[in-house]
Design a protein that fits this description.
single chain; 128 residues; alpha+beta; 2 helices; 22% helix
Length: 128
């Protein structure tokens, strides 16, 4: 499994540096140095997305950050307190399950998922 050309084009257009590797039945996509919205203790983090077999018909579920992301007040974002070893690194898991409500099978892609992630990260700061 490899990234679709549309996803490669999106990442290049945004200037993201990224790596991929196989992780079981998933393609692991690591987007390096993703800028976080104001309100976090770190300005940027690496973002890991596990793309399932059948992507983009099948939606990703959850995402991971390294380094660990904490709110400016020192709190962890909701449902983001588990560490998982994926590949050679320990990652902070963001347990999010957007489901089919925000995913258009065959039309959504990495851009759609990164947009959801960024919206969620912004919302976490607003409710803190």
């Amino acid at each position: 499994m490899e990234l679709l050309q549309a996803d490669k084009d999106y990442l290049a257009q945004k200037g993201y540096q990224y790596d991929t590797f196989a992780h079981g039945q998933f393609l692991a996509l690591v987007i390096r140095d993703v800028r976080l919205p104001a309100g976090y203790q770190v300005a940027c983090t690496d973002l890991l997305i596990l793309l399932p077999g059948g992507f983009p018909d099948a939606a990703p579920d959850m995402w991971w950050c390294d380094p660990w992301v904490k709110l400016a007040n020192g709190a962890d974002p909701a449902s983001a307190t588990v560490t998982e070893l994926i590949g050679p690194r320990n990652w902070q898991r963001f347990s999010r399950h957007f489901g089919d409500v925000r995913w258009a099978p065959g039309r959504s892609g990495v851009e759609s998922y990164v947009t959801l992630i960024k919206s969620d990260l912004t919302r976490a700061v607003q409710v803190a």
